[in-house]
Specification:
The chain has a three-stranded mixed β-sheet with strand order 1-2-3. The protein contains eight helices and three strands. It is globular and about 50 Å long. With 156 residues, it is mainly alpha-helical. The chain has a single domain, classed as dinb family like domain (Four Helix Bundle (Hemerythrin (Met), subunit A), Up-down Bundle). The longest helix has 26 residues.
């Protein structure tokens, strides 16, 4: 990955909270709980997923940078949704998402070329590099912001 692509992806990553916040602007309780289709997540569930995913991804990046060839454990996001009370209020999860992303963005801005080449092994997908991490999480929040918009539209 060249430096310009990396800068673009870091900017996209850092913009993720704004995208999600805008998608939630003026949301009602009814909109938070609407599902765009059977079996699809509501906006409320998406916010809790973002918090859990962001905290998990923040640790993954730190392990990739700080440890030698770490083993990165996958997790079942649907089990998290079922077992971690995704019907609760969203404020704390939105803030957890925000601050995990903010502190990780600070790390991304300071990383050296050698750190960008670090890698570990993911339990589900095998070889897992810092650059792959960035490619995944740069777009993650934006994808879910669009999902929130669709879920809200289902309530209208």
């Amino acid at each position: 990955m060249d430096a310009q692509t990396r800068r673009t992806l870091i900017a996209q990553y850092k913009d993720g909270y704004r995208a999600v916040s805008e998608a939630l602007q003026g949301v009602s309780e009814r909109e938070l709980d609407a599902r765009p289709a059977p079996g699809k997540w509501s906006a409320r569930e998406i916010v809790h997923h973002l918090a859990d995913s962001e905290m998990t991804s923040a640790i993954r990046l730190r392990r990739l940078v700080a440890e030698e060839r770490p083993q990165i454990q996958g997790y079942d996001q649907d089990e998290f949704a079922r077992r971690l009370y995704y019907d609760r209020a969203i404020h704390a999860s939105l803030e957890a998402f925000r601050f995990a992303r903010e502190t990780t963005g600070q790390i991304l801005e300071k990383m050296t070329e050698a750190q960008w080449l670090r890698e570990g092994t993911h339990s589900e997908s095998g070889r897992y590099t810092v650059q792959q991490w960035l490619e995944i999480y740069a777009q993650h929040a934006h994808n879910h912001a669009e999902q929130i918009r669709r879920a809200r539209a289902a309530a209208r």
